[in-house]
Amino acid sequence: MAGSDPEKLIAKADKLTKLSLTRWSADWKSATVLYEQAGNGFRLAKNCEKAKIAFEKASKGQEMLSSPWDAAKHMESAASLAKELGNWNEVADFYRRASELYNECGRSQPASDALTKGARVLEDAAPDEAIQLYTDACAILEEDGKEQMAFDLYRAATSVYIKLEKYTDAATFLLRWGLAADKCNATYSQCKAYLSAIIVYLYAHDFKQAEKCYNDCSQIVTFFSSDQNRCASKLLAGYTEGDVEEIKRVAQSSTVSNLDHVIIRLARKLPTGDVSAMKSDAANGQETLDEDDLT
Fold first, then answer.
1. Cα separation of the two ends of the chain
2. Residue 259 and residue 236: Cα distance in Å, rounded?
3. Could you list the residue ranges that cross the membrane (predicted)?
4. Closest to 132 measured CA to CA, from 109, 87, 164
5. CATH classification (class only), 57-144
6. What angle do CA 108, 109, 113 make, to 5 degrees?
7. Residue 27 region, left (φ>0) first, then alpha (ψ -120 to 50), else beta?
8. Would you call 217 exposed, middle or buried from its count of C-beta atoms within 10 A (0-12, 13-18, 19+)?
9. Architecture of domain 173-295
């Protein structure tokens, strides 16, 4: 069985790729086959570290043979082994590299998928890196006019932002989702994304930003005439009037129930903070207006 001993296979492959006095050109074709066999052998033997190195080398071999698709596949194998080993930096690097290689083949969907796989693995261990990978995965699909394929990625990134309590970033990403939905005429998703962003701002006690977001989104005809717009309008009115019961009632509405779970959870906790203070602020603003009218 010496021929199938992964240690021997990798040593033989390394020799074939090293130049010496007797070897003037590397035999990547033969070496790559040996690296692949070694990678599979090490993986079967549960030696993740050596399997990972073998697949990295196999990936390099396929690149040298001008086969980026196969190189990308091997990079993904190396990435999943890095995951087993808990090497989070390598997980991100390898999936990024796999994505670049798929891009070289002109294949945006697998390129985006590779980044998404990395993001899913890193959500708990390195959430900021996960968000970056989701964002880049979205960008690849957007550039290729495949916004509709990115909806799950917008959802996933928003969810990680909310877990990290980065509410402004979450709302900004929801607005980006709304824009992408607009480009592919997914009006229902667009309206849901805008209402979700308004809810996130309210949850984060940023009434001014929620109001601005509502006003900006209401310039868009599809949102202006939607159930989601009416729902947002009632929520904001509840805040302006300091009506806690009304806010809670709207948060239980079917329009809110049709949003993503992570947003529903925030909505059901509204109002956060002191709403009566907002009511007195609004009243003070009104008094000032009345006085101005008299002069």
1. 100
2. 18
3. none
4. 164
5. mainly alpha
6. 115
7. beta
8. buried
9. Alpha Horseshoe (1.25)
Distance of CA 17 to the CA centre of its chain: 39
**What is the average per-residue pLDDT within 36-64?**
97
Could you give the CA distance from residue 128 to residue 209 in angstroms, rounded to a whole number? Answer: 24
| Sequence ranges of the domains in the chain | 57-144, 173-295
Q: Is the dihedral of CA 271, 260, 122, 110 positive or negative?
A: negative
The confidence score (pLDDT) of residue 290 equals 45
Q: Are residues 181 and 142 in contact, defined by beta-carbon separation less than 8 angstroms?
A: no
State percent of the chain over pLDDT 70: 93
Beta strands in the chain (DSSP E): none
Nearest alpha carbon to residue 263 among 168, 159, 160, 176: 159
pLDDT at position 56, please?
Answer: 97
Report whether 162 contacts 124 (CB < 8 A): no
Structure tokens at 203: 């949850």
CB within 8 A of 125, min separation 6: which ones? 86, 88
Residue 38's identity, in one-letter code, is A
Instruction: Give the least confident one: 49-58, 222-231, 279-288.
Output: 279-288
Q: Please state, in angstroms and rounded to a whole number, the distance separating the CA atoms of residues 160 and 163.
A: 5
Task: Give the burial string for 15-44 (b: 16+ CB within 10 Å, else e).
Answer: ebbeeeeeeeeeebeebbebbbbbbbbbbe
